[in-house]
Amino acid sequence: MNTLLSGAGVHSGNCEIMTNITAPALQFDQVSKYFGEVRAVDQADLDIRDGEFFSMLGPSGSGKTTCLRMIAGFERPTSGRILLHGQDVSSLPPYERNVNTVFQDYALFPHMNVEENIAYGLMVKQVPKAERLKRVEEMLELVRLAGFAKRKPSQLSGGQRQRVALARALINHPKVLLLDEPLGALDLKLRQQMQVELKALQQRVGITFIFVTHDQEEALTMSDRIALFNLGRIEQTGTPAEIYEHPATSFVAGFVGTSNLVTGDVAKRITGQEIIFSIRPEKIHLADLEAGVPQDSHSVDGVVRDVVYLGLYTRYLVELEGGGDLVVVEQNLKTTSMDVLKVKGKKVRLHWKKEHVREVGN
Ligand code: ATP
Description:
The protein is α+β, with helices and mostly antiparallel strands and 362 residues long. The chain has two domains: 3-255, P-loop containing nucleotide triphosphate hydrolases (Rossmann fold), CATH 3.40.50; 281-359, CATH 2.40.50.100. The protein has ten helices and 18 strands. It has helices at residues 64-72, 114-124, 129-142, 158-170, 188-205, 216-222, 240-245, 250-255, 264-271, 337-341, and strands spanning 26-35, 38-48, 53-57, 79-84, 87-88, 99-102, 176-180, 208-213, 225-230, 233-238, 260-262, 277-279, 285-287, 297-309, 313-320, 325-331, 347-353, 358-359. The strands form four sheets. Strands 6-7-8-3-9-10 form a six-stranded mixed β-sheet, with helices on both faces. A five-stranded antiparallel β-sheet has the order 13-17-14-15-16. β14 and β15 (313-320) form a beta hairpin.
């Protein structure tokens, strides 16, 4: 049996903390953080369940890392409270919190081998050598690095170094693991592979993972839920499907996936109402002008101004009659690059089911 699963007894640094098992793993209660005049985090509320894979997603400078650093205890909130398993930790130092962090650059000790790097936290806690070796072996097994114990970090690939950093963070049995863009240094293929591995690992150990990323695809792939940050505020919290299918604001619609935001006169002409709405490019059908429009659908005519053939699918930019444009994406199920390029300059009718329209706030 995996010892991590039996690690319900709570250790943290040198002290024992009583935790409330039924409470959420992490709560933010109106947390704000100012650096001088800079408002890095603005009245954030969060509720992260025990065992959740939770991502903080947002553009650069939106406050994600500051939130993570406050959870770890490296920064203190200017106002508000942070609770870990029901305990207010807002003013506790990092070593008294039962959390561990994996950084983007892994922060491995270059002069130590893999085994020594992973055992470091246990050495600090003066865990006896036999116990240390046993737990390192379990960790190596867990991250699929058995046989690499004596290698130095410089003798490992990027993905292997990443796994050592994970093992080193997990060996202390943290209740919550914080991951700050841990896959950012890897190339695309390896990153995609590690996304799958990391998610599988999290499910195996059952620890709450709080994952910071600016990569929306990564967040959608891995997370149980996502909080989307913008200018220090949380714009929306939800499952990947909720965030993608029901964006709460125009910022969310624009940041997650590609979305057409339709406003003003164009929106009114299409829907008959004064609303702002988003429609995903893959929900729009591109048809001939003679084509009928299915029931319960919106339609608008336009001219195809641009066609980009992308192998799996084609992206069209359609200039609408009366102004504005829409991006349409269609899979190349039957079409070839020659077919789709012929469409450029043609008049077309666009239509989509009303149920795919999302009215969004500003
Ligand atoms: P990135 O994806 O680029 O890491 P982020 O979303 O993690 O960005 P933060 O690093 O949390 O954003 O920064 C939020 C805001 O706070 C930014 O405007 C940043 O410049 C500012 N900030 C962060 N740390 C400090 C600091 N120590 N002193 C002053 N300003 C800071």
